[in-house]
Design goal:
Radius of gyration of chain B: 25 Å
Largest sheet of chain A: 6 strands, mixed
Largest sheet of chain B: 2 strands, antiparallel
Number of domains of chain B: 2
CATH architecture of the largest domain in chain B: Orthogonal Bundle
CATH class of the largest domain in chain A: Alpha Beta
Strand content of chain A: 25-35%
Strand order of the largest sheet of chain B: 1-2
Oligomer: heterodimer
Structural class of chain B: mainly alpha
CATH topology of the largest domain in chain A: Rossmann fold
CATH architecture of the largest domain in chain A: 3-Layer(aba) Sandwich
CATH class of the largest domain in chain B: Mainly Alpha
Distance between the termini of chain B: 7 Å
Structural class of chain A: alpha+beta
Order of helices and strands of chain B: HHHEHHEHHHHHHHHHH
Number of strands of chain A: 18
Strand order of the largest sheet of chain A: 6-7-8-3-9-10
Number of helices of chain A: 9
Shape of chain B: globular
CATH superfamily of the largest domain in chain B: MetI-like
Number of helices of chain B: 15
Chain lengths: ~325, ~300
């Protein structure tokens, strides 16, 4: 396992910016999650580190070596692709053994058997080991794909939305399992996801990308509680943060154009009057969709409350986040 | 990937389709069957009218194909009774076997040249197709068009220049010369067909192999080649059929050492009258290698390209 450092890394594809001037340190043993919408440069970052793409500018250091001229094999990275690219002509067992049999690792046969069985056990695919890779369901393919990375102990694991096509239960199981494996091995892991729960529960660090630029890097709590822009604030949080004009409630600092209130950061019973439009009973909480002078607001309430659509409810922000005209945070 | 339901075809359309396939098979197989039957006929039966479907089979055609024979005096025949079953067949015409014919050699030439050029075409074609499919090559489209343009005229149109060049280079009537020639004709077909097949193989597999610790070339032969097997098999069959059946260049450029079977078989006709059973026997034996090759590779031809392991 190793520390990975990106220095001023840039890559564009013709006119399209892949990533631009990204500098980031992934500490040894860290679980770093990259967040950002499609096209923000998450996958490009993984591909640059793996060596599948060459950067236009900048350096990549893995475990203290500049890997600029190294091939993907020499970099000693493992990657789980978003397209789970299992070798269709091989069985599940041979797919899992494939990295171990490479000329670089050249693992002895009994060691291969042991590792493959161990990983298959963890990923609950032991009973499918002798199937052809093409004779699996989507979820099984994705687990084999994760397994092909986990049989190794590389400098860094790169994972591109590895849990996205699994059903909810398996996703929860594997999320816990991945975190446990990472913690046990002390593995360094760079993980791309859209899923907030994955980001919040697994990450030691979160990096937020916007149009190829790294706009904030910090612990999940920092990113959630202390975003430095409107963009970062809206990347995490479900339901999403409510954005309203700064002068709606008054009391905003000078220069503030908009304020952001997370659903749980709204005090009920005082302030401005809003109309309840819709109530969602989630069991552990009620989710209220409000209309405040034409602005849609989502907040949460105790499950015992009994609001009906059309009811009036006074609300007031609690410690709102203030943003200027450019969407930058005002502290 | 989209899924669509396919309704089971009705009994009547199945029956209709089955009938059409049988009719088509009959139409294409009658000439082949006729050639095979003729190989076992006596010369008289072979040319009888109306044609005979039921006849007394004889191996005369095959004996004549593989041997040269001379007529002998009755005294000689009397003094030397036939030793083997094939000599007995020849004796009916007051002949004795003088020695083996050239058919065996010519057939072996066909095997060497046919399979040699097929192997070379596939070997070079696969490498070129992979490069065209995966690497950024300057003027790739123009190069591909240039490669294809070698097939835009009938190859025989350049027969004279090739004949002259081969004579200068000492390639006339050599195995190497014929292998190079057939490879040159087949390579454009091989590159184009194989490029299509390799284009179909998603790049992700090679990228995965590169990260799994393999070099580019190892990824090529461990991951790309097995998946291109279908395409390689069908391309190989096309190449072999061309090289195997080629007649015009073989007549022009070979006469002895490297002569293939196609120009040789018709020469049997000239030896001692119209020996149709021997010609048919030669054609039958000549058909076998391509047939066996095709049957061996049938599995790959029918299997089709694997879908489903890469999520699109």
């Amino acid at each position: 396992m190793a520390e990975v450092i990106l220095k001023n890394l840039s890559k564009s594809f013709g006119k399209d910016v892949g990533i631009e001037d990204v500098t980031m340190t992934i500490p040894d043993g860290a679980f770093v999650v990259l967040l950002g919408p499609t096209g923000a440069g998450k996958t490009t970052t993984l591909r640059l580190i793996s060596g599948l793409e060459k950067p236009d500018q900048g350096e990549i250091w893995i475990g203290g070596r500049n890997v600029g001229t190294e091939t993907p094999a020499q970099r000693d990275v493992a990657m789980v692709f978003q397209q789970y690219s299992l070798y269709p002509h091989l069985t599940v067992r041979d797919n899992l053994a494939f990295p171990l049999k490479s000329p670089i690792l050249n693992t002895p046969p009994d060691e291969i058997t042991r590792k493959v069985n161990e990983v298959a056990e963890v990923l609950q695919i032991s009973h499918k080991l002798d199937n052809k890779a093409t004779a699996l369901s989507g979820g099984e393919m994705q687990r084999v794909s994760i397994g092909r990375a986990l049989v190794r102990e590389p400098s860094i694991y790169l994972m591109d939305e590895p849990l996205s096509s699994l059903d909810a239960k398996l996703r929860t199981d594997l999320r816990v399992e991945l975190k446990r494996i990472q913690a046990n091995l002390g593995a360094t892991l760079l993980y791309v996801t859209h899923d907030q729960i994955e980001a919040m529960t697994m990450a030691t660090h979160v990096g937020v990308l916007d149009h190829g630029k790294l706009v904030q890097f910090g612990t999940p709590r920092e990113i959630y509680e202390n975003p430095n822009s409107l963009y970062v604030a809206s990347r995490l949080g479900l339901p999403r943060i409510n954005i309203v004009p700064a002068d709606l409630f008054g009391g905003a600092p000078a220069g503030a154009r908009q304020i952001g209130m997370r659903p749980e950061h709204i005090t009920q019973g005082e302030g401005l009057e809003a109309e309840v439009q819709r109530v969602e009973h989630l069991g552990d909480q009620n989710r209220l969709h409000l209309n405040l002078q034409g602005h849609a607001i989502t907040t949460i309430a105790d499950p015992a409350t009994d609001y009906q659509p059309g009811a009036a409810l006074k609300i007031k922000p609690k410690d709102p986040l203030c943003f200027d005209a450019q969407g930058q945070r005002i502290r | 990937m989209s899924s669509f339901s396919v309704t089971e075809p009705s009994k009547r359309s199945k029956w209709f389709a089955g009938t059409m396939v049988v009719i088509y098979a009959l139409v294409t197989m009658v000439p082949l069957a006729w050639i095979m039957l003729t190989g076992f006929k006596s010369p008289a039966d072979a040319i009888s009218y109306p044609p005979k479907v039921v006849f007394e089979p004889t191996l005369e055609g095959y004996v004549n194909l593989f041997t040269t024979r001379t007529r002998q005096t009755p005294e000689f025949l009397e003094a030397n009774p036939p030793q083997t079953w094939y000599e007995e067949i020849v004796r009916e015409y007051d002949m004795v076997i003088a020695g083996p014919s050239k058919f065996g050699e010519r057939f072996l030439n066909s095997v060497i040249i046919g399979f040699g050029s097929t192997f070379l075409s596939i070997f070079l074609g696969t490498l070129a197709a992979y490069a065209f499919s995966r690497f950024k090559i300057p003027f790739a489209d123009d190069l591909l068009f240039f490669i294809l343009s070698t097939r835009m005229m009938p190859p025989i149109a350049v027969a004279i220049p090739i004949f002259l060049m081969y004579r200068q280079l000492g390639l006339s009537d050599t195995h190497l010369g014929m292998i190079l020639l057939y490879t040159g004709v087949n390579i454009s077909l091989a590159v184009w067909l194989l490029k299509g097949f390799i284009d179909e193989i998603p790049l992700e597999y090679e990228e995965a192999a590169l990260i799994d610790g393999y070099t580019r070339f190892q990824a090529f032969y461990k991951v790309v080649l097995p998946q291109a097997a279908t395409g390689i098999a069908s391309t190989a069959i096309f190449c072999l059929i061309f090289a195997w059946n080629e007649y015009a260049f073989a007549v022009l450029l070979t006469s002895g050492t490297a002569q293939t079977a196609p120009p040789f078989i018709p020469t049997i006709i000239g030896v001692g009258g119209l020996d149709w059973p021997a010609v048919a026997a030669g054609a039958t034996i000549f058909l076998l290698p391509v047939m066996i090759f095709t049957i061996l590779l049938r599995k790959h031809l029918l299997r089709g390209i694997t879908f489903g392991a890469v999520r699109k």
